[in-house]
Amino acid sequence: MNIYNRAETWYYDHALPHLEKDPLKKIGSAIAITWISYKISTKIYDACFGPLCDIPGPFYAKFFAIPRAFTDNPRGTSYRRMKALHDQYGTIVKINPSTIAISDKDWIKEILVKDDLPKGPNYGFLQGSGNQTLFNTRDKIFHKQRRRVVSPAFAVKYLNSLETFMDSCTEAFINRIDKDIENTRDSSNGFGTVDIWMLLGSLALDIIGSTAFGESFNMVESNDHFIPVAITRGMRFAPKLVLYPFLGKLVKLFRLNRDPRFDKFMRALIIKRLENDQRRDDILQILIDTQLASHQEDRLTVDAIIAEVVLFLIAGSETTSNTTGFALIELLRHTEKLNKLQEEIDNVPMENGRTLHTHDQLKHLPYLNAVINETMRLNTIASNGLQRITDSDLILGGKIFIPKNTVVICSLNHAQRNPSYWPNPEEFLPERWLDDAQVKPCLDAFYPFSAGSRNCIGKQFALQEMRITLATLISRYEFRAIPEELEAAKDIRQFITLTVEKNSFKVLIKQRMT
Ligand code: HEM
């Protein structure tokens, strides 16, 4: 007798006699019990014989999903659980009946690059306000078209013209650090105390302001421009949209995340540029210039321009500043590597009349790039993994059947710490990236900017900014770690991006004697 027949017999023997004799109620109850029995039996069937039944994972994952609100406790720590699951079950793990996580380098490449699967349902939740953007769209055709239109703003050649904006923001950043040193200087040793995490965040916002919003927000100086303040408030809300998708509908209903001042500001800016024909070689200009495109579908509306620049602010600020912050933290934990980097940068003479190195001088410095790569390997900004969904049945690695509509999470954090790919994976070893390294870095297991059609459009922008910022800090200042701050920085959380839990990291700092 199968499970359905048993449930039915039990129902007629035990439950039915106690119910009222109303025939309609009887029919309703019978339908309900049939439906429940069907659901339970298909769950059991799928768990035991379904296409994903052989994929290892915790027992409960065969039957149901534990809501993220429970697994992400304390908040921002679910990436640790994901890593622990991989450590226990291997490079493929069943997370719930229709979700798997993979960390095998070849499988990740297959999903992101070869099969180029569409983004998973979490990205849909991020469209809370109804705006599809380059980042959150799940529609391949929309994405291809939008990416083609926006790409010129991030072309390597165009980035040269953005360097002057980055430089002037970096100068303001240095002035602020000098002021903070002055105000907090300990007369016995000359060191001042600076919250470098917070200032790096402000610098990154100013750089995006200057390149994508037409002017710096001056966050480094005043820290109170309404645009980044409103958007960072929205960002704090965004992870909740993934945890509690119904909130997305509320946001849509009440348009909670749109500050009216914001639309006014952006529209005025765009109209001023259009009417006065005032050009400025920045990202915003490239988006505005799409108005001149011959094909209607290549012209971005004002709403679309606003949505994309807001996206750049979200995707391009904390990602970059936190990575630079993590690099500094790693270097302060390994001061011999800090000294080595300082020596490399000191050997690059400043060009006449300049106070900052040019990006051309920095972009090929082996140790600087090695420090950045190693930082991103250990502190990958998408530590929770990248979510995709199968749009047809596929055979992963030529041997594992994955049915259509399976959510696949590419676990970058595990791939980038897997001892089969990286000797001494938990150690910060920039040396592994140098030409003379005995074991070459496993580039196929390194995805800090993702890969495939949905890779990071801002990769070169971010690298340029990080090289300039890190080289400037290391060549100008002497650093000393504050032990309690280093200890606190071990608590790393994944919200929209990876961050230290306190969102602050203070260092002792003074100008170098050169
Ligand atoms: C260290 C800094 C950065 C890191 C590690 C990083 C990482 C990533 C990753 C992993 C993705 C793929 C996300 C996914 O598939 O869910 C992505 C996408 C994206 N990033 Fe970045 N990012 C950085 C900086 C930037 C900057 C500076 C910008 C813009 C100014 C930017 C704009 C974007 C955009 C627009 C996308 C979506 C691209 C698409 O789907 O076509 N990112 N980034």
From TrEMBL:
Q: What is this protein called?
A: Cytochrome P450
Alphabetic keyword roster? Heme, Iron, Metal-binding, Monooxygenase, Oxidoreductase
UniProt cross-references to PROSITE patterns, sorted A to Z? CYTOCHROME_P450
PANTHER family attached to this UniProt entry:
CYTOCHROME P450 (PTHR24305), CYTOCHROME P450 12A4, MITOCHONDRIAL-RELATED (PTHR24305:SF166)
| SUPFAM superfamilies linked | Cytochrome P450
Organism expressing this protein natively: Absidia repens
Concerning its family, UniProt says: Belongs to the cytochrome P450 family.
Q: Which residues are recorded as binding heme?
A: C456
| Molecular function per GO | heme binding; iron ion binding; monooxygenase activity; oxidoreductase activity, acting on paired donors, with incorporation or reduction of molecular oxygen
| Named cofactor requirement(s) | heme
Transmembrane stretches, start-end: none
> InterPro entries given for it?
Cyt_P450, Cyt_P450_CS, Cyt_P450_E_grp-I, Cyt_P450_sf, Cytochrome_P450_monoxygenase
Q: Which domain of life does the UniProt lineage start with?
A: Eukaryota
Pfam families (UniProt xref): p450 (PF00067)
